[in-house]
Amino acid sequence: MTKILGHLMQLAGLQLVLAVTGLVRNKIIAMRLGVEGVGQFTILFDLFTTIGVVVMFGLAVGLSRNVAATGDHEERQKNLANANFIIWALTIAATIVVVLGFQLDYISLERFQLQLTPTILASVVLLLVSLPLKALEGNYIAFLTGIMDIKGMTSGRSVAVIAGTVLTVPIVWYFGFVGAISQYLVLTLLLVVLLGHRCYKLGYRPWAIRWHRPTAYGLAFFGIASLTNSFFRDFSNLGIRTALINQVSLAENGLYSQALLLTAQVKTIVLSSVASYSLAAISKDQSRENISHTANQLLKAVLPIGALAGAALGVFSVPALIILADSSFTSAAHYFPLLLAADFVQVFIWVIGAPLLALKMVRAWLVLDLIQWGARWALVVFLLPILGPQAIVTAWFAATLLHLCSNAYFYFGHLKFSLNKEHLVHLLAGLVLILVCSYLGATGLWQYIILAGLLWLGYLFWIIQIRIGVTQLPGLVKGFLKKRANA
What we know:
The chain has helices at about 1-55, 60-70, 75-105, 120-145, 150-200, 215-245, 250-270, 275-285, 290-315, 315-325, 335-360, 360-385, 390-415, 420-440, 445-465, 475-485. By secondary structure, the chain is mostly helical.
């Protein structure tokens, strides 16, 4: 578990940098644009995220998996060059479709309560330019993860994001809406340059473009499934946001976006690397023993950490919204409990779902994900008139539980893999902790926040006791500090 935990800590360090700089940028955007402006920004961004999914073609999954499964240098280069060819071809096609869509009025911004002003038009152009850059960034991250260059990949991204944030925050403040979009473009460009340079230092040609039919078909095998999955996920997100705007208000979408952004930061820092890392680790050795061992080690490492991180944000949800956004966003705290709980459950799903991709059971993986997105959207449509905005997160959590059950059926029932029973206990305990702490924290009352904090400390004490023993903790901390000092 030490090696896995070490890699995950390196990835978590990167995600911490991404999250902190993202929060700084978000703070400026929230202060500069206000609640309604954030609602407009996120709906336009989501529209182009959906288009970007087509350009990226789901290549990250296939590229990471195929590169991890081979140790041949030339074969890895061939996979990267073919992935680059695919995204540039799709960029040209997507740009033509978008331009024609606006010209022929097939793409109407009015349905999202956006007017085609010079500001919105400039933002649309910048987002179009960002499409191939974001896809290249995804290729490089997937490639470096596949060859397990965790340290190099994380250091390069950290430098790019910190530098980009420092350079672009003034742009957001002075240019507002267009500045926020420009910031995204500049950050993406910096990441492409530094990640590409890392690939070059390792002896690969990051800008190479090549068409090799067997390799391209091998990528497309995973790519089409991942593309379909990502498109329906983002399309359902867009549909849910549109329903929220039309049935409630644009300002409510801004509140929901802020809650989603902050909860996503916890998942980004602590948990988001689990999916890509578990796929790469399992793809290198697809034996039954390795798959079960890797799944057990991953869950042992991430479930307690995920529970503590999610519950901590739940406890301080209201102060976090005030500090990281603005006091006008505090009512978004009622979204936190079920959002954080769903994110925690999703980590368990990533681990037990990875074998489906590693073993090329792509159809089953895709069907399970599509059922999740469809169920979530259908539940929102049904529940929104009944529950109001709370229907969004209720549907999210319910669909995630459905996804957990379906993946568990394949992992345990169909593939006959095993897991230690302790992980199910930690899943349930972490879920209860997150829900209780988040509901108490969302009240904003200091009495309940203190109570939630005590529950959090009690869980932490329990984890330390069963993992290493409380009496052993001082010695371990002393040894760690001594090791760091000698380094």
